[in-house]
Design goal:
Layout (H helix, E strand, L loop, with lengths): L11 H15 L24 H15 L3 H12 L6 H17 L3 H13 L8 H14 L3 H13 L5 H13 L3 H17 L6 H13 L3 H14 L3 H11 L7 H14 L6 H13 L3 H13 L9 H20 L1 H10 L4 H11 L4 H14 L5 H14 L3 H9 L8 H18 L1
Helix pairs in contact: 1-4, 1-6, 2-3, 2-4, 3-4, 4-5, 5-6, 6-7, 7-8, 8-9, 8-10, 9-10, 10-11, 11-12, 11-22, 14-15, 15-16, 17-18, 18-19, 19-20, 20-21, 20-22, 21-22
Length: 432
């Protein structure tokens, strides 16, 4: 589900400006020598530039400042046409031409020239890092991913620390189908950001997930989704994660589907009409008519139910839910008395969930707590999961987190749901 987009592509005008600054700082002053040498043999040995080379280069720099790239290239060509260029003059020409090429809209040419600048013996070490950084950005802009990776490795070795460029490394590796390398790089950057007390950027998780998908690392991808719903929760991430959790081997989807629906609704995931009807049907089958009634009332009110080929079945279900909910309401006191006398806590837990369907969350939480305390439960993890859900609906987030944290066993998926609920509760607490 992840698109792989680079975040390190600068606007061309900004890059031209930054490269011009690098040019003016790292290139020696293009000064004029009073006497021009007649041949390479008589060319100056030191790092100087003859007047016939310096003058057009200085003019090119002025044109670059005015964003006249093509005109600047023409001036550089004049310098290139001077006979018997010295190695230093050629180095200075390459440096100026690299910036002019970018100003003229040719990042590929600019990159090739800056590579020559970096390879030159006249390249001052103090200027190597900014020029290398420029080469990385140019390679990315030119979509030359192999070159970008090559220069980015050098940039990192030199101590480069631009965050966007460092994050681009994992993206570049993924773009060149080095998914194992991308996974390792993204994980390392996430770990480094976390260790520094910073929230890792979403782009790192996205490139990690993208690479894990391409590498068929399903378990790793699910772990990344879990990190995303904690750090950057969105309906899309949640929907993808839930769909994968319910497909895990051993997950009891039939028994826990009602709990999955509850989590989806709490996350704001919109259910379709057939899903609402299915949720209500499942609630009815396990003795929760009040919850079924509330769901069906909501579905009809939203215009999602009561039409199409299932209209008659949905109307029948609604009638059944209304009647059963009314009967439950009348028998509440009697059912509670019987549950309190039972040998184990199952009846109290079940009654608590039935009461929860009416919206009496505090009362429901108390009943479930009493049932768990009484013990003898066949599905203790499921009871703890339901208690956490009800406590959260009652506004008791801290208690809910403790209940979810108590679901430790591999009870056919209850532990997975409890963990996801805990993510959601913490995220909701951060927003409030």
């Amino acid at each position: 589900m992840f698109a792989n987009r680079f975040s390190a592509r600068p606007h061309r005008a900004a890059l031209v400006s930054s490269l011009l600054c690098a040019l003016l700082v790292s290139a020696a002053p293009v000064g004029a020598q009073t006497a021009a040498p007649a041949s390479a043999a008589s060319a100056p040995a030191g790092p100087t530039v003859r007047a016939e080379v310096a003058n057009p280069l200085n003019a090119a720099q002025t044109m670059i400042r005015a964003n006249q790239g093509k005109e600047a290239l023409a001036k550089v060509a004049e310098a290139e046409g001077v006979p018997n260029l010295t190695p230093y003059e050629q180095h200075t020409i390459n440096h100026t031409k690299a910036v002019a090429a970018l100003a003229a809209g040719d990042p590929a040419l600019s990159l090739s020239l800056f590579e020559k600048v970096l390879a030159s013996s006249f390249m001052p070490e103090k200027d190597r890092l900014p020029i290398t950084e420029s080469a990385v950005r140019l390679a990315i802009q030119s979509k030359n991913h192999a070159k970008a990776i090559e220069h980015l490795k050098s940039y990192k070795q030199q101590g480069g620390n631009d965050g966007a460029l460092l994050r681009a490394h994992a993206q570049l590796l993924a773009e060149t189908n080095d998914f194992a390398g991308a996974i390792a790089e993204a994980k390392a950057q996430i770990a480094a950001e976390t260790a520094a007390g910073r929230k890792p950027p979403e782009t790192l998780y996205r490139v990690l997930g993208y690479s894990q998908q391409k590498a068929n690392d399903t378990a790793g991808y699910v772990q990344t989704l879990e990190q995303l719903v904690q750090q950057y929760p969105t309906p899309d991430y949640w929907a993808d994660l839930l769909s994968r959790i319910v497909r895990k081997p051993g997950f009891s989807d039939d028994r826990l589907r009602l709990d999955v629906y509850r989590l989806q609704r709490s996350l704001g995931v919109k259910l379709e009409g057939e899903e609402i009807a299915d949720m209500a049907q499942r609630a009815m089958l396990i003795g929760l008519p009040a919850e079924a009634k509330a769901l069906l009332d909501e579905g009809y009110g939203a215009g999602l139910l009561g039409k199409g080929k299932d209209a008659a079945a949905q109307a029948k279900l609604r009638d059944q839910a209304n009647k059963a909910a009314a009967q439950d309401a009348k028998a509440l006191a009697e059912n509670e008395a019987a549950a309190q006398k039972a040998k184990d806590g199952t009846a109290l837990v079940n009654l608590g969930m039935a009461v929860a369907g009416t919206g009496a969350w505090d009362k429901a939480a108390t009943l479930i707590e009493q049932g768990i305390a009484k013990g003898g439960l066949r599905r203790a993890d499921e009871a703890a999961l339901h208690l956490g859900y009800v406590q959260w609906r009652a506004g008791r987030s801290d208690d809910a987190l403790r209940s979810f944290g108590g679901v430790k066993g591999a009870d056919e998926g209850t532990n997975d749901l409890a963990r996801l609920w805990a993510y959601h509760v913490r995220a909701a607490a951060k927003k409030s």
